[in-house]
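Quick one: structure for this chain?
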Amino acid sequence: MEASIPRTEAVKVSRVRSAFENERFLGSVLLAPAVAYIALLVGVPFVMAIAFSFTNVTTGNPTLTFVGLDTFRRVVQDTNFQHALLNTIGFTFISQVVIMVLANILAPALTQKFRGKWIVRFLILLPWATPVALATLGWWWMLDSVYNPFSFFLRGLGLIGPDASMVWLAPNRLIGIYFNGANGQSQWWGLNLAGLCVILVHIWRLLPMSTVIIMAGLTSIPPEIKDAAIIDGANFWQEFWYVTLPLLRPITAVAFLFGAVFTFTDMAVVRVLTTGNNDTHVLASWAFFKGIEGGNLSEGAATAVFLLPVLVGVAVMMLRIARRAEVT
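Got it. Here's what it folds into:
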């Protein structure tokens, strides 16, 4: 005869089985590794950055001396920080506006049936699947002042001289404004050729994501609404402008929000493409320059923490726009 399981062990087995049959307990167990991962790799550095931003810690003086808001005051009054902030806002806004326009053109086209549609979709999604640093390195080579292929094509078309070569990452000013800096002197901010190249790389790598998001929104629109507009006599542009775009406004706001967050916090494009030279520093690259390369950990942390309220404000604004569009 088989040995019977002791009553105490049977009770333990039944308790373990009932615990794993509990969805709340099982969900907590499965989420625990992800929560620990986020807490260790995101939460701990975030808390340390906040703590460093209220001190005067440097790599030469690692003692934490609380100084209150003095670090933030020094950071905000720095003209380089002001320039990096304007670059961050300008690069983000310009690139996302262009991306939204192009995505609203590409998404309806990619939802149509045509031969080779999957190959076209794959090629459009390829920039998003490529690592940012690797893709930017390719752009850095293509924009080289000597070996770039764009100058070769321009010479072939006769637009530039036979021995001429475009210096795409040059600080040549294109358009901008003058403003009074923290020291009372007039400061210039605007787009130069290097900044324009940074924006183009952002558009190239983030356009696929926004296109996919808007494509998902297009598939969620009931076909009866479009059919009713066509029956009422609306042409393609009228149906797109008065029916499709208003219905896509919430999903477009979400796409804009995701793209803005990725662009606002990105350092790789500026770091690889221009190394922050030619007046192209953004907040993320300037925080790295001050905190890691410059050794001023407190000011680098304060610059990085400054990103948080700005991103929260942008997120709240975009989500309110999306909610109002859903209500109307």
